[in-house]
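User: tokens in, sequence out, please.
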């Protein structure tokens, strides 16, 4: 009789435990990142009245089962359900949810070095610490800047509390401009405002070679058909012999002082000999005479009855290429905003002028543009100019140091800003091109004035980016996440925190969000509790009835005991 009472009492205790868990689940239905729990039961040790017996073939008696009476029920386990809760948009950029199985790492509790949480309702205290419910969020703060300008965090170190003001990040010191990149196109159809440099005298024409059908394809072509013919260049006669090739004639021509000869492929099937003077200018001249068949067949000349060809070079009026732009309108401009070491801002205008076109090689003309850097700011002195060269396709030529596409200009603060140091800015103009009827130049420059931290944002990879009053942005740190072999084995310690246990798996260090199954971060959202209210209410009703049933066992056993007591009256 007493056993049934104790069984009922154990049932009451077990159902009360389950009701406590259900109550806690319902109470935390709006707790960010809360994980619901379930209760499972197991029967207690049974009292064996008699053991089992085997069948006896001799007596013909069959086997019997053991006679056991249970002594009640106990709580076998309370299990944490680690499924990911739904996300809720909060409109607060400091709120963060995790899409995977990771946990935020915090410090500040007294139970262990690190604690863990799914709650992402972050804030920043007066000292700049990134916190959740008063606990410090951990991650990494140290980073280096790679050659491509990207930021690389040192994630090999142990995680530590993140402070957004550390290492002077609350106030950003001014940084002088060191480089500026120009991009875009300048108008190729603009009129050249300089003069053509000195050119050499040249003879030989691809168009005429095609028109005359010279039939020459290579310097090795045989010229026996012209044997006995004579060509005289600048007074030196060359007679073509049987078995001579174009190369033989080229060798003889190149032996003449002041003359350069080469084979030009022309249209590929009608080549010709290109003659030019080694010197340039009006004193450079070519006089070629000879058989008409030689002049038309080798030079591609159109001579008619005249069998003498002449050509002279041109003088260079402006051999340096630089022109006076004081009264000229620029063909392209862009304005750089630059800063000195104290954060003073200046506008520097880079102007480009189409200077001249070099057509000495008609197949590969080169266009020269003059650039100048200047400013209207009385507090800055700027000195910089030079030439750029562009090929026939409008691409800038970077293989000639004479026309430097990456020059540097020196800027010296003066007058009221004279206390700032002079600084140099490297101009990268390799991305500038020429294009017909197009003039659009833009630039990007580094450097910035001093600024204070105004705001910050958190990326999906956990990088915290600071936004400063000067418009500049830079990383402040990166949030680390933890993952565990058995998250359900973590121990709840209150304040939405967990610590490790021997059954959860050890904390082996932080990882970057999005790796090792931790999931990426989503700013402006919070993970809601994964409690299902309908399921909890259903379990509560079942538990309530189970509790009532167990109480009936006690009351029924009590009545039976009362009947026994009444027997002695």
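Assistant: Sequence out:
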């Amino acid at each position: 009789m007493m056993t049934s009472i104790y069984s009922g009492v154990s049932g009451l205790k077990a159902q009360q435990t389950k009701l406590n868990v259900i109550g806690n689940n319902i109470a935390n239905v709006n707790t960010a990142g809360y994980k619901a729990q379930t209760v499972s039961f197991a029967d207690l040790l049974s009292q064996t009245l008699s053991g089992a017996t085997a069948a006896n073939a001799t007596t013909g008696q069959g086997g019997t089962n053991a006679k056991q009476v249970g002594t009640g029920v106990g709580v076998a386990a309370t299990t944490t359900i680690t499924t990911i809760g739904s996300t809720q948009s909060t409109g607060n950029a400091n709120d963060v949810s995790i899409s995977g199985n990771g946990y935020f790492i915090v410090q500040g509790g007294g139970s262990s070095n690190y604690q863990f949480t799914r709650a992402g309702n972050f804030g920043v205290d007066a000292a700049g610490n990134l916190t959740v419910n008063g606990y410090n969020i951990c991650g990494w703060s140290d980073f280096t800047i790679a050659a491509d300008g990207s930021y690389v965090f040192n994630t090999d170190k142990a995680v530590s509390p993140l402070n957004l003001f550390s290492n002077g990040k609350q106030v950003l010191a001014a940084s002088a401009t060191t480089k500026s990149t120009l991009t875009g196109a300048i108008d190729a159809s603009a009129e050249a405002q300089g003069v053509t440099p000195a050119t050499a005298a040249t003879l030989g024409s691809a168009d005429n070679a095609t028109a005359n059908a010279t039939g020459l394809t290579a310097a090795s072509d045989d010229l026996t058909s012209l044997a006995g013919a004579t060509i005289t260049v600048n007074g030196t006669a060359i007679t073509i012999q049987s078995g001579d090739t174009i190369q033989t004639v080229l060798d003889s021509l190149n032996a003449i002082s002041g003359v350069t000869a080469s084979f030009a492929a022309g249209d590929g099937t009608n080549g010709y000999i290109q003659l030019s003077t080694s010197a340039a200018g009006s004193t450079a001249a070519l006089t070629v005479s000879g058989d008409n068949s030689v002049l038309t067949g080798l030079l591609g000349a159109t001579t008619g009855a005249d069998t003498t060809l002449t050509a002279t070079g041109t003088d260079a009026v402006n051999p340096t290429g630089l022109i006076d732009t004081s009264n000229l309108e620029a063909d392209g401009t862009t304005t750089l905003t630059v800063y000195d070491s104290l954060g003073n801002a200046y506008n520097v205008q880079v102007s480009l002028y189409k200077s001249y076109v070099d057509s000495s090689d008609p197949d590969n003309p080169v266009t020269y543009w003059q650039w100048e850097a200047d400013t209207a700011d009385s507090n800055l002195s700027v000195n910089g100019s030079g030439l750029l060269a562009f090929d026939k396709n409008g691409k800038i030529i970077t293989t000639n140091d004479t026309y430097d596409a990456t020059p540097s200009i020196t800027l010296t603060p003066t007058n009221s800003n004279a206390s700032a140091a002079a600084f140099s800015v490297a101009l990268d103009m390799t991305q500038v091109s020429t294009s017909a009827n197009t003039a659009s130049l833009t630039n990007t420059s580094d450097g910035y004035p001093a600024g204070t931290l105004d705001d910050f944002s958190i990326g999906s990879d956990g990088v915290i980016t600071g936004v400063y009053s000067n418009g500049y942005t830079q990383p402040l740190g990166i949030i680390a996440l933890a993952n565990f072999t058995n998250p359900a084995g973590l121990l709840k310690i209150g304040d939405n925190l967990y610590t490790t246990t021997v059954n959860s798996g050890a904390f082996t260090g932080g990882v970057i969000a999005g790796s090792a199954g931790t999931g990426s971060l989503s700013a402006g959202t919070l993970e809601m509790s994964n409690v299902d209210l309908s399921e909890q209410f259903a379990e509560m009703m079942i538990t309530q009835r189970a509790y009532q049933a167990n109480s009936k066992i006690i009351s029924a056993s009590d009545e039976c005991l009362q009947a026994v007591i009444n027997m002695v009256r």
